[in-house]
Amino acid sequence: MNKGTEKKPGAGEITLTAKGLWKTYGDFEAVKGVDFEVYRGECFGFLGPNGAGKTTTMKMIYGAAVPTTGELKVAGLDARRAERDVKRRIGVVPQENNLDEDLKVEENLLVYGRYFDLPRKVVRQRAAELLEFIQLSERADARVEQLSGGMKRRLLIARALVNDPDLVVLDEPTTGLDPQARHLVWNKLRQLASEGKTLILTTHYMDEAAQLCDRLCIMESGRIISEGTPRDLIEKHVSPEVLEFRASPDILGQLATVVEDVADAVERIGEVLLVYTSDSDSVAHKAKESGILVENTLYRQATLEDVFLKLTGRKLVD
Amino acid sequence: MGTVRIPSPRGAFRVWQRNATVFRKFWKTIMLPNLFEPLLYLAALGLGLGAFIREGGINGLTYTQYVAPGLLASNAMFAASFESTFNTFVRLKIERIYDAIVTTPVNAEDIVAGEYLWAGTRAALYGTGFLAVITALGFAFPSEGLLVSSPWALLIPPVLLLVGIMFSVMGTLFTSLIPSIDLYAYYFTLVVTPLFLFSGIFFPVEGFPAPVPQIAWFTPLYHAVNVCRALATGPSLGVLADLAWIFIFTGALALLPIHLMRKRLIS
The complex's ipTM? Predict the structure, then answer.
């Protein structure tokens, strides 16, 4: 999508600042004092299990929730005092589809543009460009309910761009989509990022975070427990290499004791033994030497998923 | 936040405009039943029941002349009540349209104000259609007497706008309080239907012993019926008191649903 204007280089410029952001609902503390900064032109991700406070944080940014305490500034404006001006600069892709089903595909963009007081001509042109961008030009006159889940999500993204926002907030942009639709959405988001849009997104897909985010933070129980680039987080929290041994549980126990002294960390999940190390050769060697019969060994690089599971635990969270 | 927010006219207009865009697509299908309903009442009660009260009529009017303007007022009540109950609930909880709007420069308070205006507009549109029909009927059957006989009737559409806004405020108040769409049965059975029956549309409540007329004075449709009937048949100054009642009641209540709906939309 070519808007005809060059993005000014904005490296290092802060688009959003949150300081001690806190949100309670009655007795429930959804967000317990988070601090973060988002720089212009970057994609900043919030990773965390369900109920970690990601969505509440997003809602505070786009004005659907009012912070209990703390400071939130978007483009230098106080999110509480300059509510309307802040919302004017933000585009929102909500977690749940709330397209206007009484309106057709293109009308959704036209009517949404009016909420921003955009001139009719500008909205018409932008709607056409955005439909092109999300590859729905041919469905402009379709009813929203006729669209697939992936198309609806793309339309939500287009709708969030109608006001040419400085900042796009995406709450779980690909949850519930099939792999093809996810890749198409990622593709669009990468395109936006390359055009210099600032993106904030929440996800619980590690691959999504790794694919899209320049920096990210991991939230758990209302707090940010770690923050950095994907590479930083991996380096900081886990060893760079992982060996996965698959064998029957009783053998895995023996194997664990054997490799323990050459590994940085050892973890067992069911029939898999995960060995984190910076020297996978010695681990593999040790394992072979011990003569323990392993069904299957997998060598891989450590990923965000390892970081995430290490920090937030492997227990099931609702 | 504890403070009540005053809506922005521009934001309210945007919400009104959204509803008008949707309405424009379906208006023919939506309006027809609303025109038929009061006509059915007029036929059944005005002509059917009216045949038995031919002698003398009511306050110098034939029964049909008496009933028709009152139905204008109740028609506006029904139009605005449906809009601010079922339709608003669907947009609030089912289609979640308001959730999308509050992330734009249009605030929650603007949404409610826009819905008031829209319900009023709808009431005025239906009422104007019905007014045209009964005016024409009067000319078509002059032996029955003109149903609309005063040029003051031209003021009925703006009055219906006001009446619509009043009932929208009431309906929205109920909407802002209920968790489930099923509870509207209470609103319609306990509020709307009694108002329809006992606000002087079908018989004068003034003739009843106390406290019936006094109670009627405290209810909103009673005043709307008075104004419509007076404008259709030639007004007296008493109309101003009824209008003042409607203004004060609407103004006093309008901010409460705004406050409550904001709490539902912004956590």
Answer: 0.90
